[in-house]
Amino acid sequence: FQERLVQFWGHFFTVARVNRVAATAAMVFESEAIRAHLHGRFEEMLQASVFHVAMLDYLNNATSFGSNSSRGRRLGGRRGVNENLA
Questions:
Q1: Are 86 and 50 spatial neighbours (Cβ–Cβ below 8 Å)?
Q2: Across the chain, what does the average pLDDT equal?
Q3: What pTM was computed for the model?
């Protein structure tokens, strides 16, 4: 039953395994964010998942910016926010 829960939450908080580095990060993500919080509060698992390095990299937040940021204003207000997590 525990492994089914790990699979469920692992698919729910998806981190793509597009190359070897991403595959390694996904395994660490599963261990640190999913398994570590499997029997705890959902809020803690959610925070651990959202702020994990693998998730931030998967969502490409390094290139994400808001329309009111200095970069967004320079680009004419076009949004660059990655809304996959929303």
A1: no
A2: 81
A3: 0.68
